[in-house]
Design a protein that fits this description.
Strand order of the largest sheet: 7-6-5-8-9-10
Oligomer: single chain
Number of strands: 10
Order of helices and strands: EHHEEHHEHHHHEHEHEHEEEHHHHH
Distance between the termini: 15 Å
CATH superfamily of the largest domain: Glutamyl-tRNA reductase, N-terminal domain
Shape: elongated
Radius of gyration: 28 Å
CATH architecture of the largest domain: 2-Layer Sandwich
Structural class: alpha/beta
Strand content: 5-15%
Number of domains: 3
CATH class of the largest domain: Alpha Beta
C-alpha cells in the first residue's frame, strides 16, 4: 500500500482580526477558555486533529490541518457570538502555504497591530499547549510548531525586529504619556494585575509614573505586584473612590464583561474633571457607553499604535529580512514534509535490521560468555545504527523521487508493504 504523506496544501487558517474588524466585532468572535475547549472537543468529534486556536485582544484565529476551512468557520460561529454574515464580510480564510505563512507572520509579530509584538509568541505557545493538553496536536503540527519557534528566534537574533519596546501595553502607556503630557504627577489607577497588567505597570514606572494604585479582583496578586514596585493597592470596593481621583485609568483584566460601568463613576458626578480611560481588554472591560460620558475620554485597542515611534521605524526597516527568514523556514518545512515519504521505509528497514540482529544474537547466545553478552549486544546495536544512519541519509536525499529507491530497499530486504502514516 502506498504511504500517505502530509502535504503543505492540507493546512488552513481562518479568523478575524484588527485589520478589518473593529473591537466591537472582534469582541463578538472572541472565545473564552471554556469556549475554546468546547470548540476543540467538537473538532475532535468530527474527526479533525492538529487544531490550534489563537486568541488575543486583536484576533481570534484558528489554524488546522484540514482542507475544509469552512468547517473551522462554522465552529467559530457556533461557539462565539459572531454571525456567519459578519465573518464573510470581515474575516479571512487562507489555505495551503498561505495558511502556514500566515501562522509564521503572526508568531513573529509581522501581522500584529504593534509591529514585532513581543507578547504574541507567548500567546501562540499557549494556543499550542492548550490544544496539546486536549490531545488535538499530532506529530505534523508538533513539528510545524518547531519551525514556528525557530522562525521567531531567528527574527530576534538575525534582525532588529525586536528593537525598542513592542507590546500593546507599551503602546498604551506611550499613548497616555502623549495625551497627558507627563505621567509623573498624574494619579493613575491600574485595574488588572495579570500578564498584561504587570507589563503595563512596568512601563508606567519606566515612563515616569509615580502615583499608581493597583486594583485586582484577587487582592493577593495585586499586593504581590505592589510589593515589587512599592505601589499601594486598593480593594474592589474602593473602585468608585479611586476612579474619582484618577487622571488615568487603565483596565487589563480577563473578565468576560465590563468591570467599569457608569455606576463606578459616582466620584466624578458633578465635577469638571476629565479622566482618560484605556481599555486593553477584549471582550471590553469598560462599558462602551461611557464613551458618551462628559467626564470620560474612552480609548480602546483600535486607537493604539506605535507608528510614530522611532523604534517602530527601525523595526519596519527589518520587515524584508524577516520575510526572507519566513520564506527559508517554509522551504525547510516543505523539505521536511517531503522527507516523510520515505519515513515508512526507514521505519521498516530499522525494524528489519534490528530483528535480524536480535535473532542472530539469540542463535549464538549459548556460545557467548555471560560477561561478554552486554558488549556483544552494544556492538551489534552500534553496527545496525551505523548502517541505518547511512541508509537514512541516502533515502532522505532522494525524498523528492522516492518510489524507485524505496522499491529497491523493500525488494533487497524483503520488507513488509508500506503502511499509511498517521493522517
Amino acid at each position: 500500500m502506498k504511504a500517505i504523506t502530509p502535504q503543505i496544501n492540507e493546512f488552513s487558517a481562518v479568523g478575524i482580526n484588527h485589520w478589518k474588524a473593529d473591537v466591537a466585532l472582534r469582541e463578538r468572535f472572541s472565545l473564552s477558555m471554556e469556549e475554546k475547549q468546547a470548540y476543540l472537543e467538537d473538532a475532535r468529534i468530527i474527526g479533525l486533529r492538529d487544531v490550534i486556536i489563537i486568541t488575543t485582544c486583536n484576533r481570534t484565529e484558528i489554524f488546522a490541518r484540514t482542507t475544509s476551512p469552512g468547517i473551522l468557520v462554522e465552529l467559530l460561529v457556533k461557539h462565539s457570538d459572531g454571525e456567519l454574515e459578519e465573518f464573510d464580510d470581515f474575516g479571512f480564510q487562507h489555505a495551503g502555504e498561505d495558511a502556514v505563512r500566515h501562522l509564521l507572520r503572526v508568531a513573529v509579530g509581522l501581522d500584529a497591530q504593534i509591529l514585532g509584538d513581543l507578547q504574541i509568541i507567548k500567546q501562540v505557545k499557549e494556543a499550542y499547549e492548550c490544544a496539546h493538553s486536549l490531545g488535538m496536536v499530532d506529530a505534523i503540527m508538533h513539528r510545524l510548531m518547531q519551525f514556528v519557534l525557530r522562525t521567531h528566534k531567528r527574527s530576534r537574533t538575525e534582525t532588529e525586529l525586536a528593537s525598542g519596546a513592542a507590546t500593546t501595553a507599551y503602546a498604551a502607556v506611550q499613548f497616555a504619556r502623549k495625551k497627558l503630557k507627563s505621567l509623573s504627577k498624574k494619579n493613575i489607577l491600574l485595574v488588572g494585575t495579570g500578564k498584561i497588567g504587570k507589563i503595563t505597570c512596568k512601563n508606567l514606572i519606566s515612563m515616569g509614573a509615580r502615583n499608581v494604585v493597583l486594583l485586582n479582583r484577587n487582592r493577593q496578586r495585586a499586593e504581590s505586584l505592589g510589593d515589587r514596585f512599592q505601589l499601594p493597592v486598593a480593594g474592589l470596593e474602593n473602585i468608585n473612590h479611586e476612579i474619582g481621583k484618577a487622571d488615568l485609568v487603565i483596565v487589563a483584566t480577563g473578565a468576560d464583561r465590563p468591570v467599569i460601568r457608569r455606576e463606578q463613576l459616582s466620584g466624578l458626578e458633578g465635577s469638571n474633571r476629565k479622566v482618560v480611560m484605556l481599555d486593553l481588554s477584549v471582550p471590553r472591560n469598560i462599558d462602551p457607553e461611557l464613551e458618551h460620558h462628559p467626564n470620560v475620554e474612552l480609548v480602546n485597542m483600535d486607537r493604539l499604535s506605535d507608528t510614530t515611534d522611532e523604534a517602530f521605524k527601525r523595526r519596519e526597516e527589518n520587515i524584508p529580512k524577516v520575510e526572507k527568514i519566513i520564506d527559508e523556514e517554509i522551504l525547510n518545512f516543505r523539505v521536511w514534509l517531503s522527507e516523510q515519504k520515505v519515513v515508512p521505509t526507514i521505519r521498516a528497514l530499522s525494524d528489519k535490521l534490528h530483528d535480524i540482529r536480535s535473532r542472530e544474537i539469540e542463535k549464538f547466545r549459548t556460545k557467548i560468555p555471560d560477561e561478554a553478552l552486554g558488549d556483544v549486544d552494544h556492538l551489534t546495536k552500534r553496527i545496525v545504527n551505523k548502517i541505518m544512519a547511512h541508509s537514512i541519509d541516502h533515502l532522505k536525499e532522494n525524498h523528492e523521487a522516492p518510489e524507485e529507491i524505496t522499491r529497491l530497499v523493500h525488494s533487497m530486504f524483503k520488507l513488509e508493504p508500506e503502511s499509511p502514516v498517521d493522517k
